[in-house]
Amino acid sequence: MTTNQPPTTPPPAALRTAVVTGGSRGIGRAVSLQLARDGAAVVVNYARDTVAAEEAVSAITAAGGRAVTARADVADEHAVAALFDRAEQEFGGVDVVVNCAGRLALSPIADLDLAVLDAVHRTNIRGTFVVAQQAARRLRAGGSFVAFSTSVVGTQFPAYGAYAASKAAVESITLILARELRGRDITVNTVAPGPTATDLFLEGKTPEQIDRLAKSPPLERLGTPEDIAGVVAFLTSPAGHWVNGQILRANGGMV
C-alpha cells in the first residue's frame, strides 16, 4: 500500500537565502536582482570583478533587499565551501543555489587551443560539480539547485564544440543529482538559454552574426537576462517545485 506524504512547504521568500555564482554580471546579475526582489537574501558570488559585484549588491540593498558579495573560483572546492559557509553565517542557511558562473570560447575543433579547452571545462564542468556538491550537502528541505547549460547543445552551431561539450556534461548530471536527492524535497533543474544579450554572448560576434541569431527563434529577438531570471525565479519558487530533473530550453522557440 502506498501513502501520499504531504510535500515540505518551502520557506517563505522573505526567509530564504540564495547563493548565485557568477552573480555580478549578465544573467547571474539579473538572477540575483530577481531573487532579491522576490524577498530572498542573496549571496552574490564573483571571480574577479569586485566592482560589478558590489554594484549588484548596492542595487539590491538600495531597493530594500539583503545581499552580500563573496569571491570564489567555482572550480576551487575550498573556496566554494567557504562561500557556502559565508551564506550560512550571514543568513542562517541556504535554500536556493543558482550556478550561473561559466566560460565561453569559440573556435573550430581543429584549431582549438587545448589549454582553452581545459579552462572552459574547468569552469563549466568541474565548477558545476563543485557547486552542486556543496548544494547537495547544504540545501535545506524545500530548496532548489539550478544549473546552466545552453541551447547550443541542441542546435550544435559550428565553433561551439568546447562550450557545447561542457554544457552537455551539465545536462547529463541534472536528473542524476535529482534522483540522488530523493527524500530531501530538493529540486534540481538546468536552464539552457538560447541567444541572450549578455557581454559573454555578444563578445567577438559581428553585427550580422548577432542579427542572424536574433532572428532564429520564432519570436525574432534575442533573449534578455531578465527573461532567463524569470525562469529561474519560477523554478526556485513554491509554484515551480513540482518541476524536477528537467532541462528547460529558454530560447524563444529556437530548435
Structure description:
The protein has 255 residues and is of the alpha/beta class. It contains 9 helices and 7 strands, in the order E-H-E-H-E-H-E-H-E-H-H-E-H-H-H-E. It has a 7-stranded parallel sheet with strand order 3-2-1-4-5-6-7, sandwiched between helices. Helix 4 (114-138) links the parallel strand 4 and strand 5. Helix 1 runs parallel beside helix 2 and helix 3 packs parallel to helix 4 (114-138). The radius of gyration is 18 Å and the shape is globular. It starts with 16 loop residues before the first strand and ends in a 7-residue tail after the last strand. The model has no long low-confidence stretch (mean pLDDT 94).
List the helices and strands and how they pair.
Layout: E1 17-21, H1 26-37, E2 41-46, H2 50-62, E3 67-71, H3 77-91, E4 94-99, H4 114-138, E5 139-148, H5 152-155, H6 161-180, E6 187-191, H7 199-202, H8 207-214, H9 225-235, E7 247-248
Parallel strand pairs: 1-2, 1-4, 2-3, 4-5, 5-6, 6-7
Helix pairs in contact: 1-2, 1-9, 3-4, 4-6
Main features:
255 residues, alpha/beta, Rossmann fold, seven-stranded parallel β-sheet, 44% helix
In short:
With about 260 residues, this protein is α/β, with parallel strands linked by helices. Helices cover about 45% and strands about 15% of the residues.
